[in-house]
Please model this.
Amino acid sequence: MGDKLLEKRRERRKKRIENVRNLRETQWLIICEGEKTEPNYFKGLVAELNLKGINKIDIKTCGEGTSTKSLVKRVDRYFEYCDKVSGATKIPYAKIILIFDQDGFGAEKFNTAIQMAKQRYPTSIVAWSNESFELWLCLHFEYEQSPLHRNNYNDKLTAIFRSNGEFTNRQNYEKHGKNLDNIFKSITKCGGSYKTAIRNARKLAAGKDLHNPAKCNPTTMVFEAVDVLIAESEES
Model:
């Protein structure tokens, strides 16, 4: 009796592991340096794409709240853990997207982190921004080619959200925008468009020395991540 019960438990555990493994092979993993803004944005974006697209995209977002270089090391530890749990011999996700900023880090550290990510995970999408992810958000509304500090992007977003009724005159992006559960929807309500952001970001990147990201201010490669998500949702 005891042996049969133990065997059933083993079978159930085996099925759970297999189900998790199968899910991850079709699931996208998005690991972000920021804890809330970036994960919430991508959750909102994917929800929108799933409403319009042929295919439903399944994502797992992780907001690490850590520095750029440490983010890559945390990715290493994350996959080491996955290997122990599932016995996987390969990265157990369909695609990995890494989102991080320069955001005050030295040029050498920023460039090294990007190189590390591309070398260790060559099939991943390394969607870096110089100087911050907020540049990508601002590009939903207008083209911006001046090298601004992240605070200037925050101020621009504050003005946009206030003028469109998303914020009161006492609210600002730094304190209230970063924690919005659906910042993507707020941007859309204010007239922003991810398609506009893609065009603006691609235009910004054109002609830049992308082998030296620290010198590419302003530039954001987030459009590459959004492009592949769109393609996934539209693929027949």
Observations:
- The first helix runs from residue 2 to 26.
- The chain is about 55% helix and 10% strand.
